[in-house]
């Protein structure tokens, strides 16, 4: 697989995917609140 632009590009792509998933979960939670009060302590801070 020579299509990758080195390790840096791969990690950048991976970080982008993780960030996209996190933002998608955050947006979905804002639109349709999920019952994560007991499970997710970070919701209290945010």
On the 0 to 100 scale, the average pLDDT is 76
Spell the H/E element sequence.
HH
Strand content: under 5%
Q: Which regions contain 5 or more consecutive residues with pLDDT less than 50?
A: none
Structural class: mainly alpha
Structural features, described:
With 46 residues, the protein is mostly helical. It has one domain (6-45). Helix content is 65%, strand content 0%. The protein contains two helices and no strands. It has helices at 6-31, 42-45. The chain is rod-shaped and about 40 Å long. The relative contact order is 0.08. The mean pLDDT is 76. It comes from Salmonella enterica subsp. enterica serovar Poona. Keywords: Membrane, Transmembrane, Transmembrane helix. The chain crosses the membrane at residues 12-28. This is Penicillin-binding protein.
Task: Give a quick rundown of the structure.
It is built from 2 helices and no strands.
List the helices and strands and how they pair.
Elements: H1 6-31, H2 42-45
List keywords for this structure.
rod-shaped, 2 helices
